[in-house]
Specification:
Elements lengths: L1 H19 L22 E5 L13 E8 L9 E3 L6 E2 L4 E6 L13 E9 L3 E2 L8 E5 L9 E4 L3 E5 L2 E4 L4 E4 L4 E4 L9 E4 L4 E5 L6 E5 L23 E4 L11 E2 L11 E2 L12 E9 L4 E3 L2 E2 L3 E4 L6 E8 L6 E4 L4 E8 L6 E4 L5 E8 L9 E4 L14 E8 L17 E4 L4 E11 L4 E4 L6 H6 L3 E11 L10 E4 L10 H4 L5 H6 L13 E2 L4 E2 L5 E3 L10 E4 L41 H4 L6
Parallel strand pairs: 3-5, 8-10, 9-12, 10-13, 11-14, 12-15, 13-16, 14-17, 15-20, 16-20, 17-23, 20-24, 23-25, 24-26, 25-27, 26-28, 27-29, 28-30, 29-31, 30-32, 31-33, 32-34, 33-35, 34-37
Antiparallel strand pairs: 1-2, 2-6, 4-7, 5-6, 18-19, 21-22, 36-37, 38-39
Amino acid sequence: MKEFFVKRKFAVSAMILAALLLMPFSFVTASPPNKLPDLPRNYGWSPGDVNGDGVRGGGDVTYGVRYFKGLGTPPVDSVYLDTICDFVDNGSWFYFRSDVNGDCRFSGADITRLVAYFKGTTTVIPCPYTRPRAIKNVFDVNINAGDTVIWYADTTYILNDFVFVESTAVLFIEAGTIVKGLPGQGAQAKALIITRGAKIYAEGTECDPIILTASIDNVGDLNDMPEDATGAGHWGSIILLGRAANNMPGGVGQIEGIPITEPRGSYGGGATSDDNDNSGVIAYMSIRHGGSIIGANNEINGLTMGSIGRGTTIHHVEVYNNLDDGFEWFGGTVNCKYLASVFTDDDNFDYDEGYRGKGQFWFCIKHPRYGNIGGEHDGGVNPIDATPFTIPWIANVTYLGSGITASPATNTNDKGAFHYRDNAGGHYRNGIFMDGQNIALRLEDRWPTDVPDRIAAGDWTMKHTFWYNFGLTDQPSFNTVDIIFPDNTPALNPPQWDTPPGSLRDLMFAPLTVLPTDGPPIIGSTNDTHFQDPQLNGISRTSGSLALDPRPNPTGPAAVSPFDPSTWDSWFTPAPYYGAFDPNAPLWTRGWTWLWAKGYTPR
């Protein structure tokens, strides 16, 4: 009950903050009926630092809110305010225009009224959100075991250390809060780490995301940080550690991105692993300019999830311009929706060590000059065939490479849409993979037990997919798939690929009998595999263009899929279309992402 109350409180605070920032407003007199009844169950409340002393206490006003759609008649005890400044509390409600249609703008299309009531020990209410944000330095000693800590939206928090939220501690972050990390490499890197047994509740909103970024980033100036690789690696990032199972020896590992001498960097539950482990909630969070280097081939990912359990909730998270991977799962079972990995220097989505969660609505786009693999998918480490096997279930994804005709420079590190290795499995449905400078799919067979064994066992499937516009190929007759064999060198049409029964080609693209050429589109009817243009509305890597619209054209071939992932499992949202975006709905990146704020995507 306490957790629900606090989360509701944060959402209410965010609504009021968004409205206060856009005073004054004009009043529109039309009056269609209310959509949300004016009933007590639709009320919420939250304490605020009204008197401006930096402390939420007895000298502050408590406010309540009522939210109702339409321009219905305001309550009889209400007054309309052009400004909140120096408002003398007379016991009345006040109301003003709010964002109804969800476009994160306040315009004539918005007709909802946010109604708030102020009462308390003070009679004059200043303008609390017009003041500059306070600055608070955060050190590792500030969050200890058993603590409950709240970070508020009127303050910018500066990470001065590896800040560990220790076991049994709880960190709440209000919607609209900005967290920044100071620069530093190796042991001097700065990052936020939620350790095993701790929890984080960081719940932004579409119009008030939580932003984690570098200390040198002026969030209000979208042009102050470079939009290339020099804008990455300016701080660490955020790391979640849990107690779900992985396939490391003993079921416990030391997470990538934290010095191996730090005991709080362990993940996994060992003999007492809990796949239902709960590390909290992360929603509507934009993570920018991270990836500090800890050591050789050891950087911090944008969002690292070390054995996170399915009791954790993660949705609407963007990683932009990170020096390492965008998202990486080290074992665990956490389910994740609405993930965007943008211009990362390494891989976009990397899972390994026995990850068995679910995913839906994942999007990535590579920079024209850097970025590695869309999905780097690994199985075991020591040994390769360690259990549990890596077998997630993922639906509705769009992976865009660096551009087959990228300009002004070519990304020689663009290694394609997928690289499966080390006995990795996994199931993909309703995917769009395109616009890369290299081979689309690599399947490794280097070890006695490897990816072909997972395919043969039914632990690897790729169905209902579009593949289009990839560059290099080692198989002239087939420009999308490359198989890597025991000597780790490509081969042309090897026996494992072509020889029936149970060949890799048949398992992936059955019932094709001839490899497709660059001629007319060919569809593998059993697995619904398309080698043709999915006809997205637009692909752009230019800020301000408003031209990156990765939705399929509503009348194009990718607009309707015969597969609905909700038939897999009730966790999945019904989405019978190809790719990460509904052809007939707004982009889910709208309002809260850097992509949207910088003008890459349509407004």
